[in-house]
Amino acid sequence: MPDSLTPESADPADVLHRVFGHAGFLGQQEAVVRHVTGGGSALVLMPTGGGKSLCYQVPALCRRGIGIVVSPLIALMEDQVAAMRQQGVAAAALHSDLPPEEARGVLRDLHQGRLKLLYVSPERLLLDGTLQRLSEMPLALFAVDEAHCVSNWGHHFRPEYRGLSVLGRMFPDVPRLALTATADPRTAEDIRAQLDLTEAPVFRASFERPNIAIEGMPREQEFRQLLSFVREVGGTGIVYCATRARTEMVADRLRGEGIEALSFHAGMEAEAKREAHRRFARGEQVVMAATVAFGMGIDRPDVRWVVHLNMPRSPESWYQEIGRAGRDGLPARALLLYSAADIALSRHHIEDSSAEPEQKRIERQRLDAMVAIAETAECRTRLLLRCFGEEAAERCGHCDNCASPPRVFDASVAAQKLLSAILRTGQRFGAKHILDVLRGRATEKVLQFGHDQLPTFGVGKDIADAEWQGIIRQMVARGLLDLAEVGQHGTAPAMTEAARPVLRGEEKLFLRAADAPTPRRAETATP
Ligand code: ADP
Ligand code: ZN
To answer: For residue 52, how far is its CA from the centre of ligand 1 (angstroms)?
Structure first.
């Protein structure tokens, strides 16, 4: 009997050519494939479009036994299975949407050794029956795709992913490969802990997307800014909106301007959602005005641009969302519009949420990092990549700040005043209080702590509050200030070691000149 469990070839390069028709591996693929084919476990961090699938598909085909791929998205599973079958690989999917008869068929094929790759949802995998069956078969590997779902720091936590920690215990000899495009160091550590990969190596690709030109600007006249961008760039793009109502309004107005536009949000009828998805996937030139509900599993290569009308909640989400542009490797653009009101609104959402204090602290840090990327006068790509633990070159050359450096001013003296006010108040007061001291406002709290007696009291009268806030945010962005936690909600700016030369006047500090965005009416975000 032909046994599809026995590999036709144990040579990864051979499988890559013959089965997938590729000339060679890309980036880290070869290292991962060799390691896993040799029986090793690993964590793979690669951006979307980086080629993660081959990292488990090739070893699964090179090793004896069946490869089990855990995937959270049914649509994604079906796509992958169809693609694998086209390459002549015996693949199948097992998930809760499968009619019982088909599920029985898949299990039968599995049991009779007729499958080489099984894509399975975590719920389905963790059923006793499934695990039992697998324990009786030779297994090539377990691949856990979208592995960030295991982490509750991640933005797509799926409780059923937690159960996957059983794999290491039940199948200690089967290689486990966790893959994700979410690269912030905390999530990576969490994945390693949850999936028992602390001893396993981490393969990390660069997350830079050199073909995406990123730019940010304060939101002033939202629709005008959007329209001129859309007209300039042309082609298919996605406009991310904070509310459902806004997606419909934006699509309407674009159509009014003669631009083909659709809207998409979680509140739409299932049929309307499918239709919007279909039209987008079919390759029509169209603008999709959507909430962040749109995009998971979108694999259209020729999206030319992504616009955010509001500040995203974290660098990770922003990166994922803009990463849907330019997957064909051709030039693409990402525009971020932001306002002070967005930032305030996001802070309120975090404070008002029912999350644990630790979770809120992390959300605040993420938001601060996002604000820093929006505010910086330096390379945005560099700041973004730093959120993923990646040290990039000083200038990427493909963000707006690199392309045309923004107007900056010498903030050295202002920074010294600020640092001195922070130090003299003991680094435990929030920005508002620090500004009260600098601007010489004798509030109750200022008087209570005797801060009106400080030599720094009133020395910052010449700079408006909004500008001071910009200075603080940019200094946080530069790592010259830390935002330490104080009390229940607050953060207190604290000086870092890096700021010492600035305080001593040994180093000059240039910051982006304030171009105060006009606050807008706040809306409630509903993805
Ligand atoms: P990810 O899962 O990381 O988002 P995919 O595995 O879907 O990325 O791969 C993205 C694209 O890159 C796919 O179209 C795939 O065919 C292509 N690709 C991946 N590896 C190679 C390679 N070694 N040679 C050529 N193309 C590749
Ligand atoms: Zn840059």
So the answer is: 7
